[in-house]
Structures are given as structure tokens and as C-alpha cells.
Amino acid sequence: MPSRDPEITRKCILDAALKLFAERGFHGTNVPDVATEASVGAGSIYRHFADKIALVNVLYRDWKERFRDSILNPPPEEGMSFQAQFMEYWARLWRFYRTYPAALIFLDVHAHGDYLHEDSRMVAQEFERDLSRWIAAGQENNAIVQEEPSVLIAMVYGAFLGLVKLENANEKVSADSMSRSGDRAWALISP
Amino acid sequence: MPSRDPEITRKCILDAALKLFAERGFHGTNVPDVATEASVGAGSIYRHFADKIALVNVLYRDWKERFRDSILNPPPEEGMSFQAQFMEYWARLWRFYRTYPAALIFLDVHAHGDYLHEDSRMVAQEFERDLSRWIAAGQENNAIVQEEPSVLIAMVYGAFLGLVKLENANEKVSADSMSRSGDRAWALISP
Amino acid sequence: MPSRDPEITRKCILDAALKLFAERGFHGTNVPDVATEASVGAGSIYRHFADKIALVNVLYRDWKERFRDSILNPPPEEGMSFQAQFMEYWARLWRFYRTYPAALIFLDVHAHGDYLHEDSRMVAQEFERDLSRWIAAGQENNAIVQEEPSVLIAMVYGAFLGLVKLENANEKVSADSMSRSGDRAWALISP
Amino acid sequence: MPSRDPEITRKCILDAALKLFAERGFHGTNVPDVATEASVGAGSIYRHFADKIALVNVLYRDWKERFRDSILNPPPEEGMSFQAQFMEYWARLWRFYRTYPAALIFLDVHAHGDYLHEDSRMVAQEFERDLSRWIAAGQENNAIVQEEPSVLIAMVYGAFLGLVKLENANEKVSADSMSRSGDRAWALISP
DNA sequence: CATGAATGAGTTTTCATTCAT
DNA sequence: TATGAATGAAAACTCATTCAT
Questions:
Q1: A5 beta carbon < 7 A from strand F?
Q2: A162/B174 touch (CB, cutoff 8 Å), yes or no
Q3: Are residues D178 and D88 in the same domain?
Q4: Looking at residue D107, which CATH number applies to its domain?
């Protein structure tokens, strides 16, 4: 009963679901637990989402879009070197994780669920296309190693996720390591 | 019921469970489906494993050990450069994935389930300790960049998993890209 | 919210409930749907009726009374033959159905629900008593076959309902068939 | 747990469902109650029927077929008068009701549920076609009144159902009334 | 009075586990 | 030992009813 404003209720449900889905996965999370976490009656979830699958799809789509926008916008200043642009992207990844840690885990864990609708996946594909274009530009300038862009993206993002999971599971990674990680990741794709 | 030999029944169950757990996760897989996939009666699973949690723990432990052994043994020849040793490790990772693709996905997906017993996780920790030792040796020889070993492991293994997921989701990564990937990954940790 | 006049709101609710209860039955109809059909807020229904059971009881009682009155009043002219009186009754049945088709279906479908209060059923019993009296009079005059009146009522009304359901389900029954049906029904009870 | 033979379990469920659906309708009956009536666990129902709708469809189809067969087979002897044949049909209706009272009520109550699949309804249509043919033959012989066969069927079956409901609701109809009812019904359709 | 978002008890359905064969 | 039908506790979902606005 957080409010009479349905938008606020909806937001509470989405936040609670994000947290629990990230921690326990889709099948490991049950609807009443989401309701409790959201301080909402179980039935209320079904006033806002047709079913559990609709909920996870809205969540996936919303956060994938927010993630993409956080990384890509605004575009790095013209005239920056590709390395500097990469560092900016890396910093944004990290900033996103610091701001919304659960969202990043959620997006990773649910990337391949067969409950995701086609259009939810589409957002991820658009994102990848934009990144591929940036890499191709870097390759034309000989600033990025000649390699399939999707392979480079997979390795860089994989390395990033590796760090995220390290921090998520264990204790915190030192700030120094963190700041050096961009250089390490750049080494991955520089010629 | 492929045989009267209980060991074979057990193996069939483990194989079926590995496949389904890798595809659908622990909570997304139900026991009767495992039984069907294993061509075994549902009750038979409980003759070999106390319950679903015991099954996933055996699976996790077994495969984590096999994975560790496949990567670490036999130790790379003395006298090889650290880069060459790294290339060997990278090749072994890849070879393991090619041989047991489901197992690698399974190990990743189930790495943080709260249904895993302490001792199942322990295997992973031992493995990490061994790798850290190798990295520390490399760092002493100035063959590997000065950085927290757990950070380097996380990034390298993350990059590897990124490639695995790319291949798993999309179409095959070209053999060329694959063979170049070791060099990219080495760049990640070379000084 | 068709008006500020509460009586009109109440009427809208009753009409909507009649329609939906007739189509889907009591348990198959839910209160929010009735509200939507009535263009009224769900809460408004509870301002006019204590609960769903009270609503169906008001509806049943009201329409059973209207039905009875439409059939029995005014009494057929003195001096008409019993056959002519029967034809008048038959015509009234048919006229009622043409005017309020949903009501007739509703009364049939809900005749035996255990949610009906005693007094709702009473109306039906009174009605039957009146009809029985008329039949008894006809039997005394040898204008109606000697048979338990309740049996004759059941057969005649059953035949009528059969026609109503035929028309309700399929396409329209021809006007000719309709007008002949009174003769057929009279054959059922004439000596 | 009535048996290890699944067919017996299935039969128990069907019998229990028939009884409760006939008494309370589809929406008024819940699955655990069916399970209890069948002396079976609630989950067992779902081993035999995909869901509640599948259950009611199987039930409807099965009983509609049994009903049709009970009435039509074996065909009345050649050479009997149409009136005698009608009396035989009427007797069979009555015999069916005496043997399976719940089934007849069930078929009537569920004749128009929107949860019935097309093919469940089909059985009813075939039945009607056969009866129409018989009536048409009678009309050619001037043994049955000239009238739309579907209208005659609706009235006769309606009259029969009226009697059935009378007996079902109130006390028993006398055996004499019962035996005379065939004559009354025949009057309905004789020229 | 009217509203409709919120609620939670109740219903449908699933599935890990048992046990008679 | 193997089986798979049966089970019932728990999950997903519905809906009659309430109540803040």
C-alpha cells in the first residue's frame, strides 16, 4: 500500500523484482516474495503485469535500454583518441554498475531465458550494432586491432563482467585495481 | 533404462541433468524432465541421489574438478615462457569447452546458487589458488603485469566466457578469430 | 457513471448483471466485469448491493416477479375457452422472451443455485401454485387432460424453454413455426 | 489412491467430476473438491487431464456420445409404427436418465459453456441430424406433423428435460405420470 | 455517492518426492 | 533395483471486497 498513485506501486514492484531476480534468477524467485519485498499485496502485481513473464520482460527491456543509453549517451567528444573514448566507455560501464549493481547482474543472468520475448532481445542487438560500428571506425583508423567486432565486444564485456562478479561475490576490488582495469581492457583490443 | 548396471544409470542421470541444468538453470529444470532425458524412471533418480540438491552438488563438484584437472594437468613444461604457458592454458580452456560445452555453461550458471554446499565451492577456491600462484610466479619474473591475481583471473576467464557465450548464442566464431583470441587474452595480462 | 441519480446507477448495474449472469452464469461472472459492463466503478456495486449474492438474489426475485406478472396479468377474459386462454398464456410467454430475452435465460440458468435465498425461490412457488389452479379448473371442465398439474407445467414450460434455447443458440426460428408452436404445446395438455 | 491402475483413477476422477459439475456447474466446482470426491490427490487430476477445461470437455464428449448411442442404438425394429418407435425413444430417454441421472443434468447445464471445444459440440450436432432424419421420414409417412424437425426436437426434448428437472428438484414423479408422459409427448408431434 | 487501486483468501496448477508394484 | 502413478505442499494467478481519495 505504498501510495494511491499506481505509478509508484508499479515502480516498487519493478525495483523489488529487479533485486530478487538478480539474486535468485527468474525461476528461483516467486511472486509472493516479490510482493513482500515491494511491500505490496501479491494480487497487486497482477494489476500491473499480466504475469510473471510479462514482469521479467518489462524489466529486461527497461534496463537494457537504460544500460545502452548510459553507455552510449552522450557520445564521447569528437576528437578524442579511440583509447580515450574507450576509457570513457569503460568508466561509464563501471559507473552504471556502481549506480545500479543489481541491474547489471539481472541483465547478465537473464540474457538467455526462453521466457524473453523477441522484442526484449532486440534492444540488446541494437546495442551491439552500435558498438560494432564504433569498433569498425577504430579499426579503420588503425586504433583498434583487426578482429571481428563481436569477438572484441564479447571479450571486453566478458572481462568487465568478470570483474563485476568478482566484486559481487568477494570483497571489494581495490580502487587502484579498478582504475587500472581500463588499461588492461584497452590492451585487449589495441593493435 | 539403458542397462542393468547401476553405474550406467547414474551416468545417464548425470548427463541428462548436466544438459538440462545448463540450458534451463537449477530452478528451471524439473526432476521428471531429467528422468525423461535420461530415459529413466523418475523414482530412479532418488535411488542414486538423495534429492535434487544433492544431484546438482555432485554435478558441480565433479565437473569443477574435471575442469580444474583439464586446465592444470599436466603442468606446462618447465622452461616454457610464461606467454607460451598462458597459450597452453588458453588452448586447454578452449579444448575443454569444445569437448564438454554444456559443462562449462553449467559451471558458470550455477557458480553462485545458494543450494551449493560449502565443499562444492571449495574446489573452485583451490583452483583459483593454484592459478594465483602461477600468476604470482609470472609477476616475479616480470612476465605478467603487476596486478591483483584475482583481478587478472577474473578478467581473463571473463573474456573467455564472453567468447563461449558468443559462440553458444550466435553462430560459430571463426577458427581464425578463435586462434587469435589467445593473443588478445595474453595482452590483457602481459606487462 | 451515466448519471448522478443513484437509481439510474442501480438500474445500470442490474441490467449489466442480468446480461452477464445470463451469458456466463453466476460463478462464471465476476464483479469487476459487471462494473465495466455497467460503466460504473467496481466499488459502486457495493454501494447498492451488499455483495454478489445479494445482487443475484435481487435480480432473481425482481425478474421472477415481472415474469409472473407478465404471464398472469391481466387474467384472460372470462368466457374464453381454455384453449384460447392457453394460447394467450403461450403468446405472453413468447412476448416476454421477445422483450427480455436475457431475463428468461437468466431465470432458467439460476433456478437452482444454492446462493438463492428462500424467499427468492418462494416467488417461483407461488407462480406455480397459480398455474396449477388454472390447470385444475381446466381439468374440472374436461378441457385439459387428467394429469398431475406440476407435470403438465413442467412439460409445457420445458417445451417453451426448448424453443427459446433453440432460437438463442442457432438462427432464428421462423415466424410460422413460432405461431404454430402454441398449437403443438396445447396438444400436450388437451385431453 | 484407489488403485495402481491409472484407468481406474481416471474413471474415479471422471465420475466425481460428473457429479459435482452436474450439481454446481463448471465454474462453481473447484478442482480440489473433485479430487476429494474422487478420493484422489489434487495433483493426480493433472496427471490425467491437462487442466480443468480438458476435464470438462472429455466428460462432455464422452457422455454426449453415450447418450446418443443409448437413444439411437439399436434402431427400433423395422415395421413398427412411428408412434411405437417414438415411444421406444421416449422410454430410452427415461431409461438413460434413470441409469445416469447426473449425466443428463450435466449435459444440459454444460451445453453452452464457452469452455467447450468445437469438436465437443460436434457430437451434439450429429445427434440432432440423425433425429431430424427420423422425423423427416415420419413426416413423409404423414405420421408426424409438418413442422421444422429442429423445432419438434427442441419441444420434445425440452418437455423431457422439464420432467427431469421436476423430478430432480422436487420429490419423485409418480410412475403413472411417467408412463403417461410418452403419450403426452407424442401428442406434441403427431399430426 | 462514486471511484478504482489495492488486497489477500481462494483457486488453479506444478513438481519434488514417495512408495506399491 | 527400477518404475511411474500418486501425492500434497508450494507456486502462479484470480477476483470479491475494501477504502483512501
A1: no
A2: no
A3: yes
A4: 1.10.357.10
Residues B78 and B5 in one domain: no
Report whether the peptide linkage leading into residue B74 is cis, meaning its omega lies within 30 degrees of zero.
yes
Rounded Cα–Cα distance for residues B38 and B25 (Å): 17
Q: Is residue C124 within 8 Å of residue C132, measured between CB atoms?
A: no
Please indicate, yes or no, whether residues A127 and A169 belong to a single structural domain of this protein: yes
For residue D30, with 0-12 CB atoms within 10 Å meaning exposed, 13-18 middle and 19 or more buried, which class applies?
A: middle
Query: Which of A145, A154, A161 lies closest to B163 in CB terms?
Result: A154
Cell of D163: 420432467
Can you give the residue range of the structural domain that contains C41?
Answer: 1-49
Nearest residue to D44 (alpha-carbon basis) of D26, D54, D53, D31: D31
CB atoms A166 and B151 under 8 Å: yes
In a domain, B102, yes or no: yes
Closest chain D residue to C153, measured at CA = D162
pLDDT tens, C30-63? 999 999 999 999 999 999 999 999 999 999 999 9
> Strand F: which of residues 1-20 in chain D lie with Cβ below 7 A?
1-6, 8-9
- Per residue in A90-129, pLDDT (tens digit) is 999 999 999 999 999 999 999 999 999 999 999 999 999 9
Query: Strand F and chain A: which residues 50-69 have CB closer than 7 Å?
Result: 51-53
Enumerate the nucleotides of strand E whose atoms come under 7 Å of any protein CB: 1-21
List, for residues D17-76, the tens digit of each pLDDT value.
999 999 999 999 999 999 999 999 999 999 999 999 999 999 999 999 999 999 999 999
Assigned domain for B10 exists: yes
Q: Indicate if CB(A7) is under 7 A from strand E.
A: no
Q: Distance, angstroms, CA A9 to C1' E5?
A: 9
Can you give the distance from the CA of residue A40 to the C1' of nucleotide E8 in angstroms?
Answer: 11
Instruction: Write down which residues 16-45 in A have CB closer than 7 A to strand F.
Output: 29-32, 42-43
Residue B29: give its domain's CATH number: 1.10.10.60
Å separating the CA of residue B188 from the C1' of nucleotide F16: 62
Q: Which of A89-103, C40-54, D2-16, D107-121 has the lowest mean pLDDT?
A: D2-16
**How far is the alpha carbon of D160 from chain C, nearest alpha carbon, in Å?**
7
Model confidence pLDDT, tens digit, residues D143-177 = 999 999 999 999 999 999 999 999 988 777 888 99
The structural domain count of chain D equals 2
Q: Is the CB of residue B27 inside 7 Å of nucleic acid strand F?
A: no
What is the Cα–Cα distance from B38 to B15, expressed in whole angstroms? 7
Query: Given a cut of 60, is residue B107 above it in pLDDT?
Result: yes
Same domain flag for D127 and D80: yes
Same domain, A145 and A179: yes
My answer on whether D70 and D146 are in the same domain is yes
Chain segment A43-80, per-residue pLDDT in tens: 999 999 999 999 999 999 999 999 999 999 999 988 89
Task: Please identify every stretch of chain C with a pLDDT value under 50, giving residue numbers as ranges.
Answer: 1-3
Answer whether any strand E atom is within 7 A of the Cβ of C1: yes
- Quote the minimal CA–CA distance from A1 to chain B in Å: 30
- Cα-Cα-Cα-Cα torsion C75, C77, C79, C80, nearest 10 degrees, comes to -90
Q: D36 and D69: one domain?
A: no
Whether residue C115 is contained in a domain is answered as yes
Task: Using alpha carbons, list the distances in angstroms from residue D155 to B27, C158, C187, D151, D188.
Answer: 58, 7, 12, 6, 8
- Say how far A1 CA is from E7 C1', in Å: 9
The pLDDT value given to residue C6? 78
Distances (CA, A) of D143 to D74, D80, D92, D140, D154: 21, 12, 20, 8, 18
Looking at chain D, the whole-number percentage of residues with pLDDT higher than 70 is 97
On whether both C90 and C11 belong to a single domain, the answer is no
Q: Tell me what pLDDT residue A182 has.
A: 96
| Facing residue for C173 by CB, picked from D24, D151, D181 | D151
Quick check: is A55 in a domain?
no
